[in-house]
Automatic annotation (TrEMBL), chain A:
Top-level taxonomic group: Bacteria
Spans through the membrane: 44-61, 68-84, 104-124
Keyword Membrane: yes
Designated name of the protein: Uncharacterized protein
Keywords: Membrane, Transmembrane, Transmembrane helix
InterPro entries cross-referenced by the UniProt entry: DUF6220 (IPR046192)
Amino acid sequence: MRKAFVITSAIVLAVVLTQFYLAGVGAFSRPATADAWDGHRIGAMAIMAVVLLNTVVAALARADGRTIAFAALPIGLVILQFVLNAMSNGLGGSQDDRTGMPLYFVALHAVNGLVVMGAAATGLRNARRFASGAAAGSATEAQRAGAA
Amino acid sequence: MLLVLDLLLVVVAGGLWVAAWQLRGATAGAAVLIAAVLTTAARVTVVALLGGAGWWFVPDRLVTVVPLTLLSGVVGVAMVRRRTPPVPVMIAAAYVAVAGIAMQFLVGYPVTVGAVAAVFGPGVAALLVWRLSARTARVAVVATTAVALLAAGVTAAVGSRLPDRLDHNTHGADSGHAAHGGSAAAPGVSIADLRGPSRAPTRKFTLTARAATVTLPSGAKVDAWTFDGRLPGPELRVTQGDMVEVTLRNELPGIGVTLHWHGYDVPAGEDGVAGVTQDAVPPGGTFTYRFEAKDVGSYWYHSHEMSSEAVRKGLYGTLVVTPDRTEPAETDITLPVHRFDTGAMILGGSDRRETRDVPAGRRVRLRLVNTDNNAHRVAVGGTPYTVSAIDGRDLNAPTVLTAATTLRLPAGGRYDVVFTMPAGAVHVMVDGRESDGLLLGTGAMPAHPAGTDLDITRYGTPAPGPFGRYDKDYTLVLDRLVRFLDGVPSYAYTVNGGVYPDIPPLMVDRGDAVRTTVVNRGTESHPMHLHGHHVLVLSRNGRPVTGSPLWLDTFDVLPGEVWQVAFRADNPGIWLDHCHNLPHAKQGMVLHVAYRGVTSPFTVGRRTPNHPE
């Protein structure tokens, strides 16, 4: 089960990387159509699904609480991604017209995306350490990253 | 604004409570805990304010806010006594805070027992696992919870898949109005028979849909789907009393097309909605629309097959009905605003500032039409003016406006602007850009002072309305929730918690006075468009309309707003009622107004050519 946890953690990281690629597809497609973001939209759902799976696997592998919580962290961060977008729209931004506050808000989406990436990378490191028996190390690692 | 704030607070509170539990006892933990309690207090305030705006905004929030407030109280008391709060309280608070996020994204309004069970079930199961000693009992609890959640998810996913063919005649069953004429036994009239008059046409048009690369006046090129190779499609200008016949020919490569008369209330069979009032016209096919030009005003037409994509790519044009045949004493200019994927924006047919010479003293009528998915802000500088009509219906005694007022034109909406040409120039500015728009007359570019939006509910003079009592009363709560759309999980746009085609139709009988309350719980505006009827706006946010009676076909419900509108069911059919931000419609925000006894032989679904959105 510990090996499975490492594998699912690696899948999470791979899917997050793919999500960055899909964001690139959306951003660089010309003409800039709304449909170009479809892949990125599905990618978000895929991240949620694999992170959920990874969390369950972490629990089944009897990882410690903080490692499990850390495995689940991307779910909250991805929800925040949706929220940033929705808030931008709520402040008056739209697909066609986004300047000022709505723009500055939604731009945090890119930064938070990096945080998701960092969480996924640290999650994989946690899983590998846990698999090699150094579970204690992963806990402090998680704690430090969580506090930051 | 409150809804946006609440969205942020619920997510932040979830994160803080989980962190507070994880960091319990640590130095940082105390700070996080205080932040969590403060965030919860802020959310209580916001939810209370939302409750003041209407009950629809709060039940799902109260489900978690109330227990979280109590738990915060316990935590607060413990902290005042300088003790670390007990672990079970911290865990419970973390769970309830995260459940708040789930309620926000998964449940919305209305709150059902099943939804609450799905959100809190896992927590109860975890409690059981913790308290039960027998290993088999623990396994049983975990397995039951997992299977129940999985079954609910799979059922929702599979149930959302569009069947091969979905007709509109079984509506009665799911809405509890079994008398709807869907069954073979019930006498019904087919929408295919609800066509325009058969007398000889006095005006005939042919519109040919075809792909074309159109060069705009600036030189920019747009790969478009067009009517007759033009952007916008040809303006159809007819006179009141005309019998209009429009033949649609499709020469698009592999794409179906229809003509929907946006705002013009035609007989149902002429409404041009693929899969509801006709089959999409296939490449090489034709369809002939016939209707009588009775209602003077500004309208537009567009394809209602894959409308989200088709309209954006150029399958639109304007329809104008003028009062008489005499040479008009006014300069009458139709100005549809449209934005293409390339970023090009055209007002009328031009993407740069056009100049037109109009002699001073002449009456000018500008017909502003928003053919896009989002609102545009239009300002008229250089002359006082009136908004004489909205959505093709004259306003009662509109007062004079100046450049300091801006007109927020909702998606799909039309405003008629009327003024007498002054000696100087007049500029029509869209979205604050002076570099394009329309410049009328000669002289210096007029000033555009910063303006405030016209509140149409207070504009003009009141007049008595036609409605005394209401035969039907419906509520539509608009929101954005995670739902399965044709089997795929999506952050979809919902009505009463559902997405098309699972939103029960509003059933009406011919002659009914129908009142509808529309509530926007989301963070985006929803320009709601009812086909085949104009609705009279009764109130917005509980405040009755104090200006001219407003008969609209597209009304823009902003986040947090509550609109009450009414219409007379005087045009039998099955009518779409949807958000005219067309991507929202594509992602679920579509329902029908269905007349009892009307059936449709047309279907949507995988094995049909029809994709109305």
